[in-house]
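Render this sequence as a predicted structure.
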Amino acid sequence: MTLRTPGFRRTTLPGGLRVVTEAVPGVRSAAFGVWVGVGSRDEHPAEAGTSHFLEHLLFKGTARRTALEIAAVMDAVGGELNAFTAKEYTCFYARVLDTDLPLAVDVVSDIVTAATCTPEDVESERGVVLEEISMHDDDPGDVVHDAFSEALYGEHPLGRPVIGSVESVEGLTHEAITGYYRQRYTPPQMVVSVAGSVDHDEVVRLVMAAFDASGPADPAPLRPAVPPPPQAGTVVEDRPTEQAHLVLGTHALSRHDDRRWALSVLNNGLGGGMSSRLFQ
């Protein structure tokens, strides 16, 4: 099924994978991304940090490419390849010249769908993630947002850091991580987005060749309901630094609420930027 809106086209493949493109006139580049609808809010306490761990792990190699080959093949064409994890999604993306889009589709889809995730790679990457946690904890600008989320959401998964904790990451087993990967990285939970000098029909052809998205797949697991807003409170974490970091906020409107546009105008008028979360 294909839908058309000004500047955008969207096709949903039989297996549930969605492909969205925007043709941008006058450019010679293309950005290709695979957005997986899984993040830290989908993790049980014992799984905390798994989504972020997988973001690292999937670059360690596939059935067709080693980690070195993954990096080298994109560097050879001057492309950029990266990923990031948030509370509600994980994204793997590449930026290349338009002529190299088939390569970007092949490499990113290979990473997302065919990562080997060997026990050796899990242990190797565990040390990298633990070091990243240490760096995160040393940055007061990161810590203050974690403290705010914990105060706002409490024990709900949205209240935990995306990166997980030392305890949770040390406790993740190879079996738990690969099981999470197989369960969560399925076509209905993915959106492929492409922008730049692109042709929608050609993108759909490339994606269909790269992804196993032709047949039905299990539906996405239900996400934990968001708790009601807590009473106003203050959280202070004392650090021996010369700076003070302050976060003030609360629950806002859903991104599907038309009133959020008025809130955005008001917030910008006050000199800030608005972040609105989709609550389920």
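Summary. DSSP finds nine helices and seven strands in the chain. Residues 276-280 have pLDDT under 50 and may be disordered.
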